[in-house]
Amino acid sequence: MKINNKKKCLYCNQQIQGEPFNHKVGYFCSEEHFDAYCETLSKEELALLMHSICPCSDEG
Q1: Do 11 and 33 form a contact (C-beta atoms < 8 A)?
Q2: How far is it, in rounded angstroms, from Cα 39 to Cα 46?
Q3: Which of 20, 43, 50, 55 has the most CB atoms in a 10 Å sphere around its CB?
Q4: pLDDT exceeds 50 at position 17
């Protein structure tokens, strides 16, 4: 499997092998790692994240 040396998973901080799960907030090994990352955030951090990825937001 091809290792993408430039991208690391935002959740596990491991080099991503193959195609990353690309999300507006960063790259993840998989959608499961994105979900797990969201679960580690406080309510305030999660609210800021959701606001930043909202299609009507100009911040992202």
Answers
A1: yes
A2: 8
A3: 20
A4: yes
